[in-house]
Design a protein that fits this description.
Order of helices and strands of chain A: HEHEHEHHEEEHEHEHEEEEHEHHH
Shape of chain B: globular
CATH topology of chain A: Rossmann fold
CATH class of chain A: Alpha Beta
Distance between the termini of chain B: 60 Å
Number of domains of chain B: 4
Number of strands of chain B: 23
Distance between the termini of chain A: 57 Å
CATH topology of the largest domain in chain B: Pyruvate-ferredoxin Oxidoreductase, domain 3
Strand content of chain B: 15-25%
Strand order of the largest sheet of chain A: 2-1-3-4-8-7-13-9
CATH class of the largest domain in chain B: Alpha Beta
Largest interface: A-B, 64 and 75 residues
Number of helices of chain B: 21
Largest sheet of chain B: 7 strands, mixed
Radius of gyration of chain B: 27 Å
Number of helices of chain A: 12
Oligomer: heterodimer
Number of domains of chain A: 1
Amino acid sequence: MPSIAKPIATHPSLQRNELGLTIRDYEGSMSTLCAGCGHDSITAAIVKALWEMSMKPHMLAKMSGIGCSSKTPAYFVNGAHGFNSAHGRMPTITTGAAAANREVTYIGVSGDGDSLSIGLGHMCHAIRRNVKMVYLIENNGVYGLTKGQFSASADIGSKSKRGEANRMAPIDPALLALSIGATFVARSFSGDKEQLVPILKAAFAHRGLALVDVVSPCVTFNDHEGSTKSYQYTRRHEARATETDYVPKTSEILAQLNGNGVTSVTMHDGSVLRFRTVPPGYDPKDRQGVMAYLQERQSKGEVLTGVLFVDESVPDMHEMGNTPDGALTKLPFEKLCPGSQALAELQEEYR
Amino acid sequence: MQRNSGGSVNDFAIKLANVNGTGSASANGLLMQAIFRMGIPVSGKNLFPSNIQGLPTWYEIRVNDQGNTARALNYDLMVAMNAQTYARDIKEVRQGGYVLYDSSWPLDKSLYRDDVNFMPIPFAQMCNEQFENPRDRTLMKNIAYAGALVATLEIDVKTVENLLDETFKKKKNVRDLNLRALKIGYDYAKEKFACPLPFHLQPMSANGDKILIDGNTATALGCVYAGATVAAWYPITPATSVMDAFKEFCEKYRKDPETGRNNYCIIQAEDELAAIGMVIGASWNGARSFTSTAGPGISLMGELLGLAYYSEIPGVVIDVQRVGPSTGMPTRTQQSDLLSCAYASHGDTKHILLFPANPAECFEFAVKSFDLAERFQTPVIMLSDLDIGMNDWVVPKLQWDDSYVPDRGRLLSEEDLKKLPKYFRYADEDEHFVAPRTVPGVDAKGAYVTRGSGHNKFGGYTEVPAEYQQVIDRLAKKHAAAADFVPHPKVQTTFQARFGIVTVGGCDLAVREAIAELAKKGIKADYMRICGFPFAKSVETFLNQHAVNFVVEQNRDAQLTSLLTLETSVKKEKLKPILFYGGFPLSASQVVDAIEASGETIAIDSETYCDAPEFTTE
């Protein structure tokens, strides 16, 4: 993860959030990704979302595995701990970290190689455990750092830079996640910050694991004619299934709710995810319905984006484990060690 | 027909041959526990198959008033309850020994030996007559043979009845069933045989300050006492019962009395890759966290153990070793993960290892593992094994010092950070080459990116040779510095002998008994048991003090010998591996035989003989 420090220059007219921090306070080191990389746009969206949410930098933990996507935690929120771990293992490390300290907010930044091949099992099980985290997949269909091999999200018929066509069926993280009980599934496009920022905010407000799959074109290895993960292809085929506004808990809901079925979901923290538009009959709480709709539209070649599914009724890992409201790391040792008297009594059972 | 054989009180070995899954384990455990309560030194070894039901399984009980309770191979009595294995079981009884068998069906004539005594008891027939329920008929056969042993070995009847009372406190009808079965075997034996047998029991008072416990339970208890809050694991024999016990203790001690919440989090992971990942994540966040596994798990954990080593994250791994390679023999014991643990992961890696020899040390070393992991900010692997972990051992009562304070090492608090002008992760090393660490959620000043990729002492990414080497060189020094902190070897140099016998872990009892046996034969040897890695300076001193060091270990490739060769300056020629790797716990006679067969003891004698001046003129 090579990085270059950014010069600190804050213009006095920059807006400040509730914590008195400017958006510059949410930035990280200079990106060393290729110019035009979709990942950098996602980083910018993360910065914007966290600034708008007034996230305390030290209460955030930025987790990643290995790959281009996994370098990005160095590029946002310098004041937060980051963990650039091992290929595919980010979900396991985040699970352990979240188990130890639930007071910290976790964002895992992964890619399609990291999450859909080497770490596929870990991603699935993190979803099943409903670990409270934002699980971001920066999905470009290729392995960038090793120079352009197909990843497991490459579509059938999509061509590599050398002209070779992929023949194997892709793994769609959104459909996969829905099939194993994911409680928040969204998809976006790195070129669509307007959509991504509210999605990220809703993801942070979610009760458990929020999977956000973001199509993020690789300008160097997968942005050519014949690729289904290029800027051009995605722009032509993106269809916004839903459009949402994220309304924080403290804000007054001013906008009018529209009249076509389910229109808003109250998140676990009391904030509201308001669906401005949804297709007729679409219910973002209906797992089977969402899966059927996604499959139908995607079979027509569309890349459906938006918050696709939300279920705030499922407990997260900590709730399932009946752990304390605060961090396990804050429990005093006296609460953890039963002491000599208890040991003496216990050992009567081993006689 | 009975013949007398050499009689002895509180010094004999019996073997019970059973069919797996028929309930024999409870009967065997009952016998062992009753002998323990009679105050007599005893051990029980379960030699079981990787199977739920049907395959042969054995249980061995050794009683020895001197406390020599390693496995013994000359059985005074065989309880043959499995027709599948009659042939080999009957063959294993010593001359003049006894075979107690189920005579509901006739014993094949070819199986008879005229140098042992057969004690036929029609267990199945009697149980079929006495019990209605088919399941009871099978289960109660075991309690019936236990009854026969109570009679023939003079196991205290009241003690056995008390144990049944305690076990079936809430199931009076089951207790009565057991008592009936016990009486069936007891009465039959009393009537048909001369009781007691020449070898039998007499109450002692050797166990007043002792408990009967298996290593996995003691390990789990150590993890509770050390304050571990996050445990992640993947089911694997023989380590599963570590987490079973941890869960049980947590339910007992970690349920918050005020809130009813669980002051712990146990995660059954999707695999061992995930289990160690979770441990690393939790430890990175400042929790005391551990996983329990066996060899196959260590292989999978290699990748992330290297990450934790390089990025300096604590974590405790309990490796309950079993027979490898590959799946190997999951229910058999070995010490064959020494090298794979010492150097687990690609690149230059070295880990801190602890080697308990019995359940009491499992408890003590488990606590120590957490202290060392945090002090040195690195994974610590405690290597137990199946014999220690899954068998019940008689050990001194576990002790706890209430003044114990966890050694958190150099972990910066919010106040510490406030005092610092600036924080860099791997700068400011102390005299043990440890740099202060920070955890998330405390202060933005402590924030940095933890990475397994090349980093400099500031924690920043680097590909500069000198910067990379500076960090990796410090890690080597840090590992070496841990030598003073790991448990030092247990050394006995009573004989000041030319021979040293070096061993590790669960071989302890067998080797110490072997030293006594060898001494009787005029072969004097000093003793050293290695307890930790990196090796304390005293390890090298001992090896240098002895002309020949026999290294007794349970693996094919002399892994401890290799580690000693690699990590001390002692010449390889001074080390003579004595290896056992069939999968069963070690016995003293095996050690004695192997050392005698090595030729080393003869060679030294003849060398001394030749050097003697009065013979040089010949």
